[in-house]
Automatic annotation (TrEMBL):
GO terms for cellular component: mitochondrion. Pfam families: ECH_1 (PF00378). This is Enoyl-CoA hydratase/isomerase. It comes from the Eukaryota. InterPro entries: ClpP/crotonase-like_dom_sf (IPR029045), Ech1-like (IPR045002), Enoyl-CoA_hydra/iso (IPR001753), Enoyl-CoA_hydra_C (IPR014748). PANTHER family: DELTA(3,5)-DELTA(2,4)-DIENOYL-COA ISOMERASE, MITOCHONDRIAL, ENOYL-COA HYDRATASE. Pathway: Lipid metabolism; fatty acid beta-oxidation. One of its GO terms (biological process) is fatty acid metabolic process.
Amino acid sequence: MATNWLKVSEPSPHVFHVELSRAPVNAFSSEYWREYGKLFETLAEAHASGTDIRAVVLSSAFPKIFTAGLDLTSAAGLGAATSDTSQDSARASLAMRKVIHEFQQAIGAPERCPFPVIVAVHGPVIGLGVDLISACDIRYAASNASFSIKEVDIGLAPDIGTLAHLPKITGNLSLVRELTYTGRSFSAAEAETLGLVSKVVEGGRDAVVAAALELGKVIAAKSPVAVAGAKHLITHARDHSVAENLAYTAAWNAAALMTMDISENMRAMGAKERPKFTALGVPSKL
């Protein structure tokens, strides 16, 4: 599944590791973000076909940086396209909307995957990097990580996911506005206070990736039916009222509770051994 700038491995059973590896600083060109979105779509398709993916860890392959954000050449191209007065304005706007929507879909692909995506960041996480990690399920940061919602310094409002996700991730809307309006850098400790990351790991890349992979192993040992259902229902709860989510969960679990994973968990507990679950894309035999 590896591509030009994305490494893919399976360091432990059912836990896949995706590494961003576009030298020198993981700057996202148009080709790169399309490749990124396609990879997660491919992982989801493989999962549906029976590949037993239960968790994915996303990190940078480079020791000093997670990502520098949007490639400046791509940013310059965007500016040139929007300043072209030779085109009909309405048609140009509709074409730009199409590109932005495609960009949003690519960076948001991890949220649509039926398995959890854990992102482990270290070093600078700039601009588009915040969009990218906001679409992941769980965010761990090395203590040397720093973050910046940098788009204001280019001359645009963030439009790929940060402003959609951060108000749902944190209750501190004042700080979200401050960080967005100023583009200032903030530390891993402040990101944890904000709620952007759930854990700060002392050290750099190796330490935070190890912690994320260990978390992936814990999740991979759970029922795939339960984890996939929980991910889907948490996202639904974020976007709907309590009453709507309860009604939806009742309908969802009316089917999901028929899983053989429940009896397998009971059997394993009685036998004092680890349960053995079938891949989610493969029907269990009744």
